[in-house]
Design a protein that fits this description.
Elements lengths: L2 E5 L2 E4 L4 E8 L6 E8 L5 E7 L6 E3 L7 E6 L4 E6 L8 E9 L12 E2 L3 E6 L1
Parallel strand pairs: 2-11
Antiparallel strand pairs: 1-3, 3-8, 4-5, 4-9, 5-6, 7-8, 9-10, 9-11
Length: 124
């Protein structure tokens, strides 16, 4: 059974940096594409970024390119989201997701497992 131990999140100011992490268990982590999605209040869940199981290929939503970085440590079964220059519009609950060896990185439907979410609040 998939579970994700989340670290990071909380209240920060605009321009600050924050790192989220998801230490996964219950899956063969090295074979899973890992993604981060977010859901802002009153909005649909949206794709943020993802990284293929190899760790070589990544994809980002346009609004996050240049500010956010995803990386993974397969030895620790952990995926990270480094967020820099945070903006108030980044305020959302951030979800880690895992999908078996797929390449459709932005498609939420391709992820079978979801973490419980971590709230990030960016004040102006």
């Amino acid at each position: 059974m998939f579970s994700c131990r989340r670290l990071g999140g909380g209240l920060v100011q605009a321009g600050d940096s924050l790192r989220l992490s998801c230490a996964a268990s219950g899956i063969a982590f090295t074979f899973y594409t890992m993604g981060w999605f977010r859901q802002a209040p009153g909005k649909e869940r949206e794709f943020v970024t993802a990284i293929k199981w190899s760790g070589v290929t990544t994809d980002y939503a346009d609004s996050e390119k240049g500010r956010f970085t995803i990386f993974r440590d397969n030895a620790k079964n952990t995926v990270y989201l480094q967020m820099n220059n945070l903006k108030p519009e980044d305020t959302a609950v951030y979800y880690c997701a895992a999908g078996w060896r797929h390449s459709d990185l932005g498609a939420a439907s391709r992820y079978s497992y979801w973490g419980k979410g971590t709230l990030v609040t960016v004040s102006s």
